[in-house]
Design brief:
The complex is a heterodimer of chains A (about 240) and B (about 280).
Chain A lengths: L2 E9 L5 E10 L4 E5 L6 H8 L7 E6 L9 H8 L2 E4 L11 H6 L8 H9 L4 H9 L16 H15 L3 E5 L7 H18 L2 E5 L3 H7 L2 E6 L2 E7 L5 H8 L1
Parallel strand pairs in A: 3-7, 3-8, 5-6, 6-7
Antiparallel strand pairs in A: 1-2, 1-4, 8-9
Chain B lengths: L11 H21 L10 H12 L8 H36 L14 H20 L2 H12 L3 H26 L3 H8 L4 H36 L5 H11 L3 H29 L1
Helix pairs in contact in B: 3-4, 3-6, 3-8, 3-9, 4-6, 5-6, 6-8, 7-8, 8-9, 8-10, 9-10
Classes of the chains: A alpha/beta (about 240), B mainly alpha (about 280).
Chain lengths: ~240, ~280
């Protein structure tokens, strides 16, 4: 099992209930799209899958480990196998693109290599390869604050491709991209999952993209999973009810 | 028709109460401090101040005094620079321990957060103790232990300024955008790497300009510590004032002015470099 959630519920510190009784599991290499209206709990679900939020109810297993029973070093090791594409790319604006991409492997590198790579990038070919998959290789030495929003989002995706995680989470990975680039980007995420056997979970606003690229669709609404079907069994009526 | 309560700013009352509280606290403070600016302009007082200041022109320019002044300036600069450098060595690691922006246990929250919070609190308290005692008091102590001279001033600066640098570094790290560092920690990065890849690129400029400003303060403080025997311009100033030599005093003050200008230029140059 790549991950399994059992009756997971989560209430944010401000009292807002974000997840309720969510049970969801996926085998290694599966590809899931999570769809649903704003505020449905998609981001919270991805953060639980990323071992970034600890749910108050239910049980979580990620990559065959129970993250919240692990020691701090073991949890760190688990996290280095999970990669997240964030909705707004969390990249310090003064970093160069190459450094921002190489930061994907900080969890696998020693502190010494990490510091050294700030002075002299330690894996230029690796960063170049990840960027070229997103048609961004000509920006290798640009500073991130000189990029457009869409380019920055692709840098954030390149970072996760370079990380090569076993569990690849993507929170609205293409929200800042035009249709052509959105298609290219999802294609690369899918290809990464096929090539490395990583499980891919992406939340998407664009239902057509979800239906085109993902074999399994999870519909969420009000913090609950409303349906979880192979893409062939998702029909117009279900989608209409989901967004009603 | 809009419901009038919907348009009531919920923050308004808190702001009003805060403003009134600030006034209520500040007024007795001014009274306690004996703040009576009118006394400065009383006839007798103006004469005394005027007579004192008249002795300051022209500045002294005798060659042997200038040689003394140059030596004292170098001593002050050395004291301030060495003191600030040592303070950095004390403050930076403590800030790294103290800052919540690099906390792994707060993600989740995860394992070991009680211990981590206790450690952060210990480091925070240590920073507080370090900066609670003014450098001049440390200088008085160290002058007794190490004898007259700049060494006492360097140690005094290192301790007090270490506490100040650590506190402010930690707070600057927390007030910048912490999302990049948090994202790195969430993907298994170490704390030092998260600092260098996630936080420093954003706030290196601010940290540098604060450090340069502290160096400027250290120059001034080393002058004050000179009065208690820690060498440098302060000691020279002390001698000139005791001999009522206003010309020498004004030459020394001109050097102060030059040093502050120098610190300003240094800070600007560093900021430009990091832009």
């Amino acid at each position: 099992m790549s991950f399994s959630l059992d009756a997971v519920g989560l209430v944010h510190p401000n009292g807002h209930r974000a997840l309720q009784g969510v049970s969801l599991a996926a085998a290694g290499g599966e590809r899931l799209a999570v769809i649903g209206p704003s505020g449905a709990g998609k981001t919270t679900l991805l953060r639980v899958l990323g071992a970034a939020l600890r749910p108050g109810e239910g049980s979580v297993r990620l990559l065959d480990q129970a993250p919240w029973q692990l020691s701090a070093p073991a949890l760190r090791g688990l996290r280095s196998c999970i990669g997240t594409v964030h909705q707004s790319p969390p990249i310090a604006p003064r970093l160069r693109v190459v450094t921002a991409v190489l930061a994907g492997r900080l969890g696998q590198w020693s502190a010494l290599r990490a510091l050294g790579s700030l002075l002299r990038p330690s894996d230029l070919p690796g960063a170049h390869e990840a960027l070229s998959r997103l048609a961004l290789e000509d920006r290798l030495f640009e500073r991130c604050d000189r990029l457009s929003g869409g380019q920055l989002q692709r840098v954030g995706i390149a970072r996760v491709l370079y990380q090569r995680p076993a569990l690849l989470l993507a929170d609205e990975p293409v929200s800042a991209l035009d249709p052509t680039l959105a298609d290219l980007t999802l294609q690369q995420l899918v290809r990464q999952s096929e090539a490395t056997g990583a499980t891919l979970v992406a939340s998407l606003h664009a239902v057509d993209l979800a239906l085109r690229w993902f074999p399994r669709i999870v519909g969420m609404r009000g913090g609950q999973v409303v349906f979880d079907r192979p893409v062939g069994q998702v029909d117009e009526a279900m989608l209409k009810a989901l967004y009603a | 028709m809009t419901d009038p309560t919907a348009l009531r700013d919920p923050a308004a009352r808190r702001r009003l109460v805060g403003g009134l509280a600030a006034l209520a606290i500040a007024w007795p403070m001014l009274q306690l401090a004996g703040f009576q600016p009118a006394a400065l302009f009383g006839a007798g007082n103006l004469q005394v101040i005027g007579g004192f200041l008249a002795g300051f022109v022209p500045p002294a320019t005798a060659p042997d005094f200038l040689a003394l002044l140059a030596k004292a300036t170098l001593e002050t600069l050395a004291m301030a620079t060495a003191g600030t450098a040592l303070a950095f060595l004390i403050g930076a690691p403590l800030a790294f321990v103290t800052t919540r922006a690099l906390s792994r246990s707060r993600i989740g929250p995860g394992p070991g957060r009680v211990r981590a919070a206790a450690l952060r609190q210990c480091a925070r308290s240590l920073l507080m103790v370090l900066r609670a005692i003014p450098e001049i008091v440390w200088a008085l102590i160290f002058v007794r232990a190490l004898g007259l001279g700049p060494a006492a001033g360097v140690l005094a600066l290192a301790i007090t300024y270490g506490g100040m640098l650590g506190k402010v570094y930690a707070e600057v790290l927390e007030s910048t955008d912490t999302a990049p560092a948090r994202a790195l920690l969430e993907s298994g990065s170490g704390r030092l790497a998260a600092l260098c890849y996630g936080l420093l690129p954003n706030c290196a400029q601010e940290l540098t300009s604060y450090t340069a400003y502290r160096w400027e303060c250290a120059v001034r403080a080393s002058v004050v510590m000179g009065f208690v025997g820690a060498g440098g311009l302060g000691q020279l100033m002390d001698q000139s004032m005791k001999m009522l030599n206003g010309g020498e005093a004004s030459s020394i003050l001109l050097v102060f002015l030059g040093l502050v200008l120098l610190a300003d230029a240094l800070s600007n140059a560093l900021r430009r470099l990091l832009r």
